[in-house]
Amino acid sequence: MPVTLSPQRNPVFTPHTPVAEATPPPQPSATLRSQLWSDFCSPIGPMQGGGPCSQGHVRTWSSAAESPYLPEVPDGCEDGRRALRRNKRPGRLPCCSFWSRIRITSEGILNCSDGAQGKRRKPMAPVVYIQDIDRYVGQEVTLRGWLYSRTDKGKLQFLQVRDGTGFIQCVVFQKEVPESVFAAATRLTQESSLIVTGIVRQDPRAPGVPGGYELGVTDLQVIQIADEYPIQPKEHGVDFLLDHRHLWIRSRRQWAILRVRATVIRAIRDWLDSHGFINLDTPILTPAACEGTTTLFQTDYFGEPAYLSQSGQLYNEANIYAFGRVYCFGPTFRAEKSKTRRHLTEFWMVEPEIAFCDLEQLMEIEEQLVTYIVQTCLRERARELALLERDTRPLEKVEPPFPRISYDEALELLAQIREETEDENLKELLKIEWGSDFGSPHETELTKRFEKPVFVYGYPTKAKAFYMEPWPGRPEVCKSVDLLAPEGYGEITGGSERISDPDLLIQRLKEWNLPREAFEWYIDLRRYGSVPHSGFGLGVERTVAWICGIDHLREAIPFPRTLKRVYP
RNA sequence: UCCUCGGUAGCUCAACAGGUAGAGCGGCCGGCUGUUAACCGGUUGGUUGCAGGUUCGAGUCCUGCCCGAGGAGCCA
Asked: pLDDT (tens digit, 9 = 90+) per residue, A436-467?
C-alpha cells in the first residue's frame, strides 16, 4: 500500500513561497481549475521565492492559465529546452513532472541567458498522509487537505486539518512563519482546501486521529477559501444533516463510521475469497419477485415491467451448481413503506450460497464470517471505534460458537420475559402467537439475554419464504436461521437450507400462489444434479450499525435512501 | 395506513396567561502564545411551514393543508 506520494509526481509546493501572491482570490468555478493548476504548477512561485528570472520568462508559460500540460519554454532557457527534448512525448507530460526536472537543474534554469542568479531551493518536503504521520516525527512534511476548524489565539493559530486519512492539528506561530503565511492562515474558513508544510512533532495535547502529533507549520498554501460552511462542529437536527449529507460525510463521526463500513466490506470479501467462495454478480434488473411477497420498485424495461432486485439468492443457487461456493454482493431494493431506524429502501447485502451444506454447517460458516468481520474491525479500526466512543468489550466477546436456540425456545424465552417485566407496555408489545415471525420488540428483548450474536432457527414454515427445506418430521417448521446481533441490534443475517426436491418445490410454489412459469429455470436446478444446499444474506448496514454502536442505519451508508428521502 | 412529537435567524433553541420576536453558535470587526464545540468585547442577522379564521392585537387560540422525525404495521 502506498503511504506517501512521490515528490516526483507531486512537486506542487515550494517552501517559503510568498503566500499572499500565490493564493488565489475566491474564483468563479469556471476558472477554478486553471487557477488551481496555476498555483500548483506554475513556476512563478518558486522563481520568485528563489530569485526570479529578470526577463520574467516563467510568466509566459501557458500552463498557468490554459492547460495543465506542458508549458512553453522561452528562448534562452537552454536547460528548459533540454528538459523538453528529453521528454519523448512532451504533450502528455504534466507540467508538475516537468517542473520536477527543472528543479533538478534549477541552477541552470535560474541562471537564464541574461545571467540572473537564483538560489538553490530547499529540498521539498515529502507529501504524506496523516494516517502515517507517526513515521515522520522531527521531519518536515507536506499535507494536502481541508481545514476542519480553526482556533485563533492572536499570535498563535491552531488549524485542525483533515486529509481523508485522519485529522491533525497544525500550529502556526506568528514569529515562526513569514508574515504572508500567518495572514493566509487567518483568512482560512472552515473547509477551505490547503497545502500545509511543517515539522512533525509529538505532543500529547494535540487532538486528532491518530492524535498526539501536530505539525509546526513552516508554510501554507491556500487552494480555495471555502464559502461559509453550513455544518458547524456542534449539534444539528437530523433533517438538516441529511439535506447536507454530501457535506456531513466529512465530519468526524460520519468519517469514522464509513471507514468502518469499508473495512466490514473488505473483511467480508477477504474471508469469503479465502474460504473457497467465488464472487459472482447477480442481476439487479429482474423479471419478477424473488419471494413474491415484498413490494418491489418497478422500472420500465423497454415497455415491459422489470423490478429492482431484492435478492440475488435464486441466481446464486444456479451459480453453486457451476462453482460450488459462491457469493453475490450488491445493492438490494425494497419498496416497503417501512419508516424505522432499521430500514432503508436501498441497502447492501452479501449473500453466500453453498452446495453440499446443511443448516448446521451454514451456521458454522456464518459465525466464522461474522467473527472475522468483528475482529478485523477491532484490529484495524480501533481509532475510528474510539472516536465513536464505542464500548468494544461486547465486540471482543464475539467468537464461535454462537448460542443456538430454536424458534420454540425463543417463544418460551419471550413468555418468560413477559412474566418478569413490570412494564405493561412491553408486555403488550411482546405478545406473540406460535406461527408469527418476530417483530422488532421481540428481537430486541431476545438479544438482550445474550452476550454474543444468537442464532434462532426452525421458524414456522408459513412465516418464511417458499423455498425453505422443511424440518424432518415437522413440516410446519422449516430449516431456516436468523442471526440476531446483541445489544438490541436484531437481525443481521437470514438464511436457510433450500428445498432440493423438485416435486416439493413445485408444490410450494402452488401453495404460495407463485407463477410456476417464472420459476421454471429455478425448478430446473432441482432436476439436474440436485444437492442439499444452503445460503444466507448478511445486511451490511445493520452489521456496520452494530459494530459502530450507532442507532440508525442511515448513518451506515454514504447516501441513505429512505421512505422520505432520495436527496442528495 | 395508524399513533406520538415537531416546523421561529444560516444552525440549535427560547418567547409565561394573546401584548415591541430573543439567546447561544456561525459570519464580520477588534483582542489574546496551547486551543480542544476556546475565551473576551463589538456587530450582523426574521415572510415564526402554507392558507384561512377569531381578536383592538396571533409565534401563541381555531380550521384545513404541507413537510419532517420516532414508533407500530409492513419487511428473508
From this structure: 999 888 999 999 899 999 999 999 999 999 99
- Regarding whether A469 and A358 lie in a shared domain, the answer is yes
The residues pairing with A141 across neighbouring beta strands, listed in sequence order, are A198
Mean pLDDT of A242-258: 92
b or e along A196-226 (b: 16 or more beta carbons within 10 Å of the residue's beta carbon)? bbbbbeeeeebebbbbebbbbbbbbbbbbbb
Q: Is the CB of A206 under 7 A from strand B?
A: yes
- Confidence at residue A499, expressed as pLDDT on a 0 to 100 scale: 97
A487 lies in some domain:
yes
Q: Which of A110, A135, A163 is the last residue of a domain?
A: A110
Q: From the CA of A207, how many Å to the C1' of B39?
A: 19
- Strand B at less than 7 A from CB of A508: no
- Residue A377's pLDDT is what? 97
Q: How far: A425 CA to B3 C1' (Å)? A: 14
Q: Is the CB of A560 under 7 A from strand B?
A: no
Q: Which nucleotide is nearest to A312 (CA to C1')?
A: B76
Quote the domain boundaries for residue A33. Answer: 17-110
Does residue A529 surpass a pLDDT of 90? yes
List, as one string, the DSSP characters of A259-300: HHHHHHHHHHHHHHHTTT-EE----SEESS-SSSSS---EEE
Give the separation between CA A456 and CA A473, rounded to whole angstroms.
Answer: 19
SS3 of A459-488: the string is CEHHHCCCCECEECCEEEEECEEEEEECCC
Tell me which residues from 228 to 287 on chain A have a beta carbon below 7 angstroms from nucleic acid strand B.
228-230, 232-240, 242
Q: Are A81 and A151 contained in the same domain?
A: no
Higher-pLDDT residue of A267, A422: A267
Please report the pLDDT score of residue A289 as a whole number: 56
Q: Say yes or no: ipTM exceeds 0.85.
A: yes
Per-residue pLDDT reduced to its tens digit, A200-227: 999 999 999 999 999 999 999 999 999 8
Gap from A343 CA to B51 C1', in Å? 35
A538 CA: nearest nucleotide by C1': B76
A366/A421 same-domain check: yes
Assigned domain for A5 exists: no
End residue of a domain, out of A43, A76, A110:
A110
Indicate whether A479 belongs to any domain: yes
Is there a single domain that holds both residue A105 and residue A141? Answer: no
- Looking at the structure of chain A, the number of domains it has is 3
Q: Which residues numbered 116-175 in chain A sit less than 7 A from strand B, measured from CB? A: 149, 151-156, 158, 169, 171, 173-175
Q: Say if A325 falls within a structural domain.
A: yes
| Percentage of chain A lying above the pLDDT 90 cut | 61
CATH number of A533's domain = 3.30.930.10
Q: Which residues of A308-336 are buried (b: 16+ CB within 10 A; e: fewer)?
A: bbbbbbbbbbbbbbebbbbbbbeebbbee
Q: Are residues A213 and A307 in the same domain?
A: no
Distance A190 CA to B22 C1' (A): 27
> Which nucleotides of chain B have an atom under 7 angstroms from any protein CB?
1-2, 10-13, 25-28, 31-39, 67-76
